[in-house]
Amino acid sequence: MKYIAHKDGEREQSVKEHLEGTAERAGEQYTDEYGLDFSLEDGMALFM
User: Fold this and answer.
1) Per-residue pLDDT at 37
2) Residue 30's closest CA among 17, 16, 14, 46?
3) Residue 3 phi, psi dihedral angles, 5° rounding
4) Is residue 34 within a helix (H) or strand (E), and if so which, with residue range?
5) Which pLDDT does position 23 carry in this prediction?
6) What is the spatial distance between Cα 33 and Cα 31, in angstroms, rounded to a whole number?
7) Which of 3, 14, 27, 34 is the most buried (most CB within 10 A)?
8) How far is CA 16 from CA 13, 38, 47, in A?
9) Which of 22, 17, 15 is CA-nearest to residue 45?
10) Are 6 and 18 in contact (CB under 8 A)?
11) Is-contact 46 26, C-beta < 8 A?
12) What CA–CA distance (Å, rounded) separates 32 from 43?
C-alpha cells in the first residue's frame, strides 16, 4: 500500500520518499554543522 505524504497538483510524494529525503537532508546538516560522517541510515534513525 502506498501512503501519500504530499500532493501538489500532479506530483505525489509517498511517505517513504518523504522520510528518505528528510533523513538525507538531516544527515547533510549534521555532517556540515558538526563535521560528522552520517549515512542515510543514521539520518533515518534520527526520526525513528
Assistant:
1) 67
2) 46
3) -100, 135
4) helix 15-34
5) 80
6) 6
7) 27
8) 8, 19, 12
9) 22
10) yes
11) yes
12) 13
Residue listed under C-alpha cell 529525503: 21
The cell for 48 is 525513528
What pTM was estimated for this model as a whole? 0.59
pLDDT along the chain (48 residues), means of 10: 89 91 79 68 65
Residue 44: its H or E element: helix 40-45
Tell me how far apart the alpha carbons of residues 3 and 14 are, in angstroms, rounded to a whole number: 6
Residue in the structure block whose three cell numbers are 560528522: 36
Residue with cell 549534521: 30
Beta bridge partners of 40: none
Q: Are strands 11-14 and 4-8 parallel, antiparallel or unpaired?
A: antiparallel
